[in-house]
Amino acid sequence: MSKQPLYSLDRRAVLAGAWRFFRQRFLLGHRYGLGLTIAFATTATALWTFLEIVDGLTEQETIYHLDFRVREVMGQVVSPELTPWVVRITNAGSVPFTTGLVVLVAVILLLRRRWWRMLEVVFASAAGGLVVLALKGLFQRARPLERLVDAHGYSFPSGHAFGSMVFFGILIRLAWISTMPVFGRISATLLCMLAILLIGISRVYLGVHWLTDVAGGYAAGFTWLVASVIIVRVVEHRIPPRRAPGPGGV
Q: C-alpha distances in angstroms, 89 versus 85, 165, 201, 205, 243?
């Protein structure tokens, strides 16, 4: 009498299960559907970009020499009339200004009882500040020598680029999950993207960062932005919502 295996794999069942798992990753409205798939793909791309920049700086390849070429070109654009405006733009990405905006947005969300969205804003920005400080301490890249304004600390990645990507990226997310019209969402997205871009350019113009510092700040900031949102969403779904008390409740 031959022994029967304790279990047998049905190839069709395995393939059907794999296809069902794959299809669910692209479903709208599913908790772990299309939204999470896009978030994972974009985060992986941003992380890969950051690592490529780090590798290019370490090996002093093409991307490393691009920094010096861009700096030469930017030096030809500098003018006494333009510099004060660029300083104003770069101040919009400073820690004090960004912190004030974070507090303002958090208070608005608090008044609207959007507790978890408020936590996303505060967590992404506050913890993100620690993340960028840790990255700067890890790479310890010196800033350019010739600068138009004072700057302290290490150069890579750019804290302004990182912070603007996180904060204005959160604003874009809030716009698209709000009830505002599509035109308002698109307008808010374009304005936030413009702010992110201009703040990054201002850092290169003022000579306080290399181009790769800003690009690395964008990539790291976007990676942290998506990761922080996912962390808060996971915690949100694991904590059951509070139920209103019954007729006999307090």
A: 6, 14, 9, 11, 46
